[in-house]
Amino acid sequence: LGPTHLLDFSARWVLDESRLETPEEVARLLEALAAFCRWSEERHDVPLWKNFGAKLAALQRSVPRHVRLRRAATKGAGKGAFEVLALEDQHARLRARSGDEQRVALSAEQRENLAPGDLVRLAGSGERAAVGAGYPAEIAAYVK
Predict the structure, then answer these.
(1) Count of helices and strands (H, E) across the chain
(2) What Å distances lie between residue 18 and 11, 58, 115, 142, CA to CA?
(3) 36-43, long-range: CB within 8 Å, 24+ apart, which pairs?
(4) Start-to-end C-alpha separation, the chain
(5) Which residue among 9, 29, 114, 143 is least crowded, i.e. fewest CB within 10 A of its CB?
(6) Residues 38, 64: contact at Cβ < 8 Å?
(7) Which of 31, 109, 22 is nearest to 67 (CA)?
(8) Is pTM beyond 0.90 here?
(9) What are phi and psi of 98, to 5 degrees?
(10) 84 and 114 in contact (C-beta within 8 Å)?
(11) CA 89, CA 42: separation in Å to the nearest integer?
(12) Are 131 and 92 in contact (CB under 8 A)?
């Protein structure tokens, strides 16, 4: 068990598989994970807190945003992985893995819960594309 496993669990599995539905539920789970990491280090000399604590602190702020973001998705979870480059008025400027950029319209709730560096999937295509599922920026290095 190491930082990559913990990142996958806390930044992807919690959002995609856990069936937790509220930011409060996710916050409680991530706090329990923080306690587990500290306990593992204090009691068993497994440096989970040392190696993952800072990233987990960032995830405790960003993962609940993505729970709210997913509740605002109206066209499903979507496909692909697009990096949020910037938030511009009522749009997000995104970059695909290919390097192509595009803009998608955002609802007020999506605008509030996205941040530059986050990853999103898109539901639909072309001018009808809409933000579907989102992932915190902390996971981006492991997705590329």
Answers:
(1) 6, 5
(2) 11, 19, 23, 20
(3) 37/6
(4) 22
(5) 143
(6) no
(7) 22
(8) no
(9) -70, -15
(10) yes
(11) 47
(12) yes
Q: Which amino acid is at 85?
A: L
pLDDT digits (tens, 9 = 90+) for 40-97: 999 999 999 999 999 999 999 999 999 999 988 877 788 889 999 999 989 999 999 8
**Mean per-residue pLDDT over the chain, rounded:** 92
Buried b (16+ CB within 10 A) or exposed e, 83-116: bbeebeeeebbbeeeeeeebbbebeeebbebbbe
Length of the chain measured in residues: 144
Amino acid at 99: G
Query: Going along 89-129, which residue ranges are E strands?
Result: 91-95, 101-105, 119-123
Across the chain, the runs of DSSP E, i.e. the strands, are 79-88, 91-95, 101-105, 119-123, 130-135
DSSP label at residue 26: H
* Single-letter amino acid, residue 72: A
